[in-house]
Amino acid sequence: MPLYTETSNSLRVISSSPSNIFEIYTLNIILSFDYYIITLLLPLYYSTSFGLSDLHAGYIFGCTGLFLSILSFTIGHIVPEIGCKRGLVLSTLSVFSGFMILSMCRSFYISLFAILGLICFGIALSGPLIGIGVKRYSDSTNRSTSVSILMMGTYLAGIIAGTYVDIVWNFFEDKAVIFDIIFSTAAGASGLGFFIAVTLKSNEKLEGNQLTSPNSVIFTKKFWKFLIVIGFVTLLHSVCFEQLDATFPKFITRVIGDKAHFGIFFGIYSANMLIGALAFTPLTFKLSSYTLIMLGGSLGALASFMLFLGSTNLNFIAFALLLSSGECILVPRTLDYTMKVASEGEEGVYLAVCNSPYYFGMILTGIISGKLLENYCPEYGDKSCFFIWKVVSVCAICVVMLMGIFKYCISHNESQAETGDSREIRN
Q1: Nearby residues of 88 by Cβ (< 8 Å), 6 or more positions away
Q2: Residue 118 DSSP label
Q3: Considering the domain boundaries, does residue 425 fall inside one?
Q4: Domain CATH number, residue 227
Q5: Are 403 and 298 in contact (CB under 8 A)?
Q6: How many domains does the chain have?
Q7: If both were cysteines, with which of 110, 114, 174, 277 could 98 make a disulfide (CB 3.0 to 4.6 Å apart)?
Q8: Phi-psi region of 162 (alpha: psi -120 to 50; beta: other; left: phi over 0)
Q9: In this structure, is residue 3 part of a structural domain?
Q10: Which GO terms describe its cellular component (predicted)?
């Protein structure tokens, strides 16, 4: 109970924060909805609309991650120059333009430009900006709770996206119409985000006034140790958690058929993350963020093994619940860990790197997903679909073991970071 009391006290402090932080939370929900839409539908979109094979659709999924990664690293250097408000306006406008093009065009190459150019740019730009906004309006006493609330918004967007996709997918027969409707909705959401970003009040606290040169950040021992940690997190995302988007929809439709309600399981997954993000927050008062990252990865490995056991709804639900429990621990605590490592003025670079597991991991995810589906779960021919999840589970366990072995070499002194954060002003 004392742990939950500390969380409750943090919530009271956050509730009295300036309105800016709640507008940032809202923008996070909108842009997360757009991100979930594109990652959930991307392989199906290219296989259905353009007749691409599983492997080639997987390559495009991987290329999306590559572009997001490159843009994320690049944007980390320019975020301090453009500021939070201008950056969020540019981000929402870019995502809006990309989805509008997708909803109207039937060209393969134009669709690639819309996704790899406009949408990827907007999403990659928004990550560091939203993270900076949350850090500037929190301190070490309520930061874990602030991050958990931020991630709850992300997971709420996942619930909405998964449920909406499932309803539209099963209501309409024409797949082209389905994609047009969903992409138009995503464009409308980012249009609303653009309006919120334009009306966002800019002030010194949000924009910051002490910026550190990127070169002085990346040539430090602290940064490279942090980069190794993020490398492990990237592996966990690519071999385990991202398979929900890249592999699970095709896996379940080939095991059950066209009426497989993969969107419902995605909704269960997101609903549990929404609850767990705050429910697991009290653990941060007793365990380090690094230890909790390892715990999240272990739950993800166990979740994948559940699918190896069979195609019952109970196994699918167990998979969704365990995987979401792992991710709602791993993702907020990775962001929490990043904020503890990054000093004031360094957030742009560190938060850009922190976002790379979701993007860079998509490269490996796309390749792994395409290979596993074509070898073990092809659309036609002999299938051994459940073996896919045994491979995923073993790979995830290996990554967690490596994190445990190298923990004392690469983990950051989090208690020292929290002491340094005590200088920050609470508004």
Answers
A1: 27, 126, 129, 130, 193, 197, 200
A2: I
A3: no
A4: 1.20.1250.20
A5: no
A6: 1
A7: 114
A8: alpha
A9: no
A10: plasma membrane
What pLDDT, in 10s, does the model give residues 89-104?
999 999 999 999 999 9
Query: Which residue reads 């002085």 in tokens?
Result: 216
d(CA 145, CA 280): 10
In the chain, % of residues over pLDDT 70: 82
Residue range(s) defining the domain that contains residue 163: 18-420
Q: How far apart are CA 80 and CA 369, in angstroms?
A: 36
Chain centroid to Cα 14, Å, comes to 23
Q: Is the dihedral of CA 111, 117, 118, 124 positive or negative?
A: positive
**Per-residue confidence at 385, pLDDT binned at 50, 70, 90?**
confident
Tokens found for residue 346: 């360094």
Which pLDDT score, from 0 to 100, does residue 54 have? 78
| Residue 236 to residue 176: CA distance in whole angstroms | 34
pLDDT at 404: 92
Residue 12 belongs to a domain: no
Residues in the chain: 427
Question: Under DSSP, is residue 31 helix (H, G, I), strand (E, B) or coil?
Answer: helix
Residue pair 401/323 in contact (Cβ under 8 Å)? The answer is: no
Does residue 233 lie in a domain region? yes
**230: Cβ–Cβ under 8 A, 6 or more apart, which residues?**
334, 353, 354, 356, 357
Q: What is the pTM of this model?
A: 0.71
Phi/psi region, residue 70 (left: phi>0; alpha: psi -120 to 50; beta: rest), is alpha
